Amino acid sequence: MTTMLPRSLLARSTARRATFFARPAPSVSVARPAARWYSDKPAEENGAKEEKDAEEKTERTLEEVTKLLDEQKKATDEAQELGRQLKKDLGYAAADFANFQRIAKREKDLAQEKGVSSVAKSFLPTLDILPVALRSVPSELLSASAPSEVHVKALKTLYEGVEMLQTSLERALKEHEIEAFDPTGEKFNPDVHDALYQAPVPGKEPGTVLECQKVGYSYKGKNLRPAQVGVVQDSS
Q: What radius of gyration do the chain's Cα atoms show?
């Protein structure tokens, strides 16, 4: 069974629907983006700032480079000074070493000379006997006119042997710069002559060596042993 609405209620419902649909649609406003305006002033400020920053950066770079160059120059100067000092020290060391070598050589030579002198002095007394032995043989006994030719021959052989021995010893000493000297007739020199006696001799110059009983010896120009001599005395 269908229920019937009153006419008045139905009319009011229809009017309400008509009124609702007759309302205009709400307007929707779309927001437009605001327009941006750019000014040249900030760009100029930015350019000036960038230029200033670049200048400051360049100045800092120059300062760093200058500092680095100064440090390198200082290091170079110190290295050169060290090199000069080392060269100077090396020169001193070389001079000291050269002095050491000279001193060592001199000491070695002195020790050698002392050793040679000591050995030579030990030989000299033996060498002194040989001239005495040779002088003890009269020269007439060495001639063939002597009474016994056999004795003369034996004596002559002995004499020649002693003479050869003397010559050999003197040659050996000379090889070591030891030389004999006979000052007979020379001016008496107390540094290299040992006066055994003085005697006035007519026709001889006073103060000269009359005879040499033992020859003197020198080593490298230095007196090793003085000659034993007789000296002419002044008779006035």
A: 67
Strand 209-214 to strand 216-219: parallel, antiparallel, or no bridges (unpaired)?
A: unpaired
DSSP of 5-47, one letter per residue? PPHHHHHHHHHHHHHHHHSPPPP-PPPPPPPP---HHHHHHHH
3-state SS, 141-182, equals HHCCCCCCHHHHHHHHHHHHHHHHHHHHHHHHHHHCCEEEEC
| Start-to-end C-alpha separation, the chain | 210
The helix or strand, by DSSP H or E, that contains position 214, with its residue range, turns out to be: strand 209-214
Q: What percent of the chain has pLDDT over 90?
A: 18
Look at residues 183, 166, 167, 168 and name the one whose alpha carbon lies nearest to residue 217: 183
The pLDDT tens digits for 40-83 are: 556 666 667 777 777 778 888 888 888 888 888 888 888 888 88
Q: How far is residue 236's CA from residue 61's CA, in Å, rounded to a whole number? A: 109
Q: Is residue 208 within 8 Å of residue 202, measured between CB atoms?
A: no
Give the residue from 75, 73, 77 showing the smallest Cα distance to 65: 73
Give 140-184 pLDDT, tens digit per residue.
Answer: 766 655 556 767 777 788 888 888 888 888 888 888 888 899 999
Q: Which has the closest alpha carbon to 199: 208, 190, 191?
A: 208
* Lookup: tokens for 144: 């063939």
SS3 202: coil
Taking CB atoms within 8 Å and a gap of at least 24, the contacts of 102-111 are none
